[in-house]
Amino acid sequence: MSNVADPNTKISPDHSYRNVVLAGIPTNRYPYLLMKHIFYDQLEVREGVVLDLGCGRGDQMAALEELGFDIIGIDREGGPNVTHICNFAENPLPLDDNSVDVVFSKSVIEHLYLPQIENYMKEIMRVLKPGGQVAIFTPDWIYCWDDYYAGFTHVTPFTTRSLGMCLEIYGFADVRTEVITQLPSVWHSRFFLFLADITRLIPAKKSWHKWIRWSKERQALGWGRKPAGTASVAPE
């Protein structure tokens, strides 16, 4: 019997990224609090059409819908909350030019190689309305390097600096970035942010408590705006 694997063998849907990785993440109110913070406090947007690109199991979609947005969810895998299935790393998005007010993409860009990032960024630019905004959320290498590749599908690390450069290279205006701590209590409290900063420096295991983990594992968040008057044409 040959020991060579059949190249045409497909991975079972039961072994998809969603079912293997995301299934172990509990559902809670955090996505709602995060979306409210990013959209209301950071982007200052309270209505419109939002594309959740790489929507996973739809936690952010549900939160954004609760906040009153019109939601489109695109992912490379099917699921109950996915509006469109699309390999957006290589193919055009199944959306019209200039049709979306905001593109939000969390924990996606780090899973893409550089040629795939080009398609991803250009398609975001194409589907955004002139003046529309993109918000990209990804682990910050500076804070997550020690176990970054524990997520074996991580291939392209980012920092706030490199994420900002990426947005500028692909034509976005008004680019800004920041490091975000995934603890809602620190978003509006300098005191709790100070405590998180102190915790980050303590040699404690991240597995001991979620406060310790998220004080240490911080994210890079980048925003950009599609310049007004930018023409978008879908590739032929």
State the strand order across the main sheet. Answer: 3-2-1-4-5-7-6
The helicity comes to 25-40%
CATH architecture descriptor: 3-Layer(aba) Sandwich
CATH class: Alpha Beta
Give the end-to-end Cα distance, rounded to a whole number of Å: 46 Å
CATH topology: Rossmann fold
Strand content: 15-25%
* Helix-strand category: alpha/beta
The rounded Rg comes to: 18 Å
- Assign an overall shape: globular
The biggest beta sheet reads: 7 strands, mixed
Question: Can you say what the CATH homologous superfamily is?
Answer: Vaccinia Virus protein VP39
Tally of contiguous helical segments:
8
Average residue-wise pLDDT: 89
Q: Provide the low-confidence segments as ranges.
A: 1-11
Name the features:
236 residues; alpha/beta; Rossmann fold; seven-stranded mixed β-sheet; 7 strands; 20% strand; disordered N terminus
Task: Summarize the structure in words.
The structure is a single chain. The protein is of the alpha/beta class and 236 residues long. It has one domain: Rossmann fold (3-Layer(aba) Sandwich). The protein contains eight helices and seven strands; from the N terminus they run ααβαβββαβααβααβ. The chain has a seven-stranded mixed beta sheet, sandwiched between helices. Helix 2 packs across helix 3. The longest helix has 14 residues, at 30-43. The protein is globular, with a radius of gyration of 18 Å.
